[in-house]
Specification:
Residues 2-172 form the CobQ/CobB/MinD/ParA nucleotide binding domain. The protein is an alpha/beta fold. The protein is 40% helix and 21% strand.
């Protein structure tokens, strides 16, 4: 299970989750771990599926990607069990983590096998990205890299601040972002880099 995390909302986590899910080879389950405001399904263009007995909806443009939302009204322990079962049942799950440092953000970081931190190039977001990376490490989950959103280049200082290599940048593009060839190519390069690590 690969967690996609950041310290701030609006940094590009959900876009990166779907972008990487579509870029990886084979079947991928994109999981929304935000119990308060799940929006991965909306960005993917599918109905929200939070029922264990229902088949995961497939991404309308990519049949190798399925999307799962968190169950409604479950406590922290049940939520962690749910995430662990999702990870056990899936060859590859990419998890859109909630922003911040609260319990909702901690659970997916603790369950994940690895973390990718997403950040735009602004000082507050970069500081929060560094805190998110530190939190993941404190939970014992390796940070395999960071993705810089809405940028064409990333200074070396980003890797130093986050304490992980920059896997790639995702250029600023008009909406719908994931329909843009430059963005799809960026996520393909990032997925290839992750595959080599």
């Amino acid at each position: 299970m690969l967690a996609i995390a950041s310290g701030k909302g609006g940094s590009g986590k959900t876009t990166t989750t779907l972008g990487l899910a579509r870029a990886f080879d084979g079947h991928v389950l994109a999981v929304d771990a935000d119990r308060d405001m799940p929006n991965l399904h909306a960005m993917a263009g599918v109905d929200r599926c939070d029922n264990e007995d229902t088949e995961n909806p497939q991404h309308p443009d990519d049949p190798t990607v399925s999307v799962r939302s968190p169950p409604s009204g479950i406590d922290d322990r049940a939520f962690e069990e749910w995430l662990r079962s999702v990870a056990a049942d899936t060859h590859l799950a990419v998890v859109d983590c909630p922003a911040g440092a609260g319990p909702d953000a901690v659970v997916p970081l603790r369950v994940a096998d690895a973390v990718v931190v997403v950040t735009p190039l602004c000082a507050p977001a970069l500081r929060d990205a560094a805190k998110t990376a530190a939190m993941a490490r404190a939970l014992g989950t390796p940070v395999v890299g960071c993705v810089v959103s809405r940028a064409r280049v990333a200074p070396d200082s980003v890797a130093e601040l986050v304490g992980a290599p920059v896997l790639g940048t995702v250029p600023p593009e008009s909406s719908p972002v994931l329909a843009q060839p430059t963005v799809r190519a960026a996520y393909r390069r990032i997925s290839d880099t992750l595959g080599r690590n």
